[in-house]
Task: inverse folding
């Protein structure tokens, strides 16, 4: 055997058996996502995964980097299951009325939204609707380490029925009839999307109408075509009719949803269909209706009425045993407020622990990632957030971004705000 090939083989073997990079993270308390609260926890991370969780002062391998976060509480990285990362606001124009931008420019701007998500403790998002494949590109660039952002599961372009294209024109793939719907699903999945999104009703921004769009037959065709190709489908419905037919059709998740009837909620619980109520996004619109969005007169009153009905529906869903997951519907300058939704979950009757699970273990199960995300436990990806306060006593320790002090995603520190203003740690 020639020497050069032999050296190459030995080099590969040496690199494959090299010791993993090891980090030990000390936390005053760890809420691990699997029902345990561990005091004086030490999370030992090797490369991008949690190797073990110990307490006190466990023996550590030589060369281990120790990060002392003992004055904070650790939680799993949060998962926001309904976002729009490509909806970027420049602070000058009115959102939804920006000039056309090249997809590369959109992707560049959207990195600010990605940064704000991480600073809110969100290490994973499900992004539901983007134009021109920008979400697909951002997902891949994040995975390659070329840009810094939350892990992304994306839907590409959402399916819509043909409607008015008056400005601002909706982003979507216009499909009408069963055959067109099936082709649309196949196009979306062929583009590389992880999920399919279908607009089953009107409603969005200042529009709180609830008119069903796709028929049951079209929804069923979309669900069947999606599942046949090994993907999952989310159905947007602001109202009860689209929600009812989306659930009957077998959607994997229902987005928004006010005034859902009891039988539909019971079916959701039986069929384990996830509900992402996105309550806070309408509150956010109210707060910015005049200064940012310039909504028409009466919009804030209509939004307040919808919020109340959305809250009532979410409360009924919780009592019915529906699996509820956190989704912020973050757009434009709503990024960074992603976890405020958890405060609404507590208002509808969840304990803080249940609310936290809605953004960790339940959300991970929605994504089919329950063995990799949503917990700080051996074998899981090392997504860890350190917050000030006790989230099991007060959910605002998680929901308010100013309480998020440090974030690790897949073993890499992506946010560090642990240095105080006086320069001490």
Result:
């Amino acid at each position: 055997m020639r020497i050069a090939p032999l050296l190459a083989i030995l080099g590969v073997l040496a690199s494959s058996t090299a010791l993993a990079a090891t980090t030990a993270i000390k936390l005053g308390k760890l809420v691990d996502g699997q029902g345990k609260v561990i005091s004086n926890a030490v999370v030992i991370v090797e490369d991008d995964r949690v190797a073990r969780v110990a307490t006190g002062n466990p023996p550590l391998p030589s060369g281990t980097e120790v990060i002392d976060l003992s004055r904070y509480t650790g939680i799993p990285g949060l998962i926001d299951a309904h976002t729009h990362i490509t909806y970027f606001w420049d602070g000058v124009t009115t959102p939804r009325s920006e000039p056309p931008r090249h997809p590369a420019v959109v992707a560049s701007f959207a990195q600010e939204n990605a940064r704000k998500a991480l600073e809110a403790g969100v290490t994973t998002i499900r992004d539901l609707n983007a134009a021109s494949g920008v979400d697909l590109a951002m997902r891949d660039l994040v995975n390659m380490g070329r840009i810094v952002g939350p892990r992304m599961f994306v839907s590409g372009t959402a399916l819509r029925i043909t409607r008015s294209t008056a400005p601002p024109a909706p982003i979507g793939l216009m499909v009408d009839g069963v055959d067109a719907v099936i082709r649309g699903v196949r196009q979306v999945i062929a583009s590389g999307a992880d999920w399919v999104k279908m607009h089953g009703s009107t409603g969005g921004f200042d529009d709180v109408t609830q008119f069903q769009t796709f028929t049951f037959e079209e929804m069923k065709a979309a669900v069947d075509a999606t599942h046949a190709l090994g993907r999952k489908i989310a159905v947007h419905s602001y109202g009860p009719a689209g929600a009812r037919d989306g659930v009957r059709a077998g959607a994997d998740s229902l987005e928004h949803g006010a005034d859902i009837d009891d039988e539909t909620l019971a079916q959701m619980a039986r069929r384990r269909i996830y509900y992402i109520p996105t309550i806070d996004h309408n509150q956010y619109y109210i707060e910015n209706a005049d200064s940012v969005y310039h909504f028409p007169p009466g919009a804030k009153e209509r939004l307040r009425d919808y919020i109340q009905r959305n809250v009532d529906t979410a409360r009924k869903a919780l009592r019915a045993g529906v699996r509820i997951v956190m989704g912020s519907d973050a757009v434009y300058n709503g990024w960074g407020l992603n976890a405020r939704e958890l405060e609404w979950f507590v208002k509808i009757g969840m304990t803080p622990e249940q609310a936290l699970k809605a953004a960790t273990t339940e959300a991970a199960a929605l994504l089919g990632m329950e063995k990799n995300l949503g917990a700080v436990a051996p074998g899981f990806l090392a997504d860890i957030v350190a917050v000030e306060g006790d989230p099991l006593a007060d959910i605002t320790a998680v929901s308010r971004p100013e309480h998020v002090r440090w974030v690790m995603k897949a073993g890499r520190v992506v946010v560090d705000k642990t240095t105080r203003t006086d320069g001490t740690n």
Q: What stands out?
A: The two ends are 56 Å apart (CA to CA).
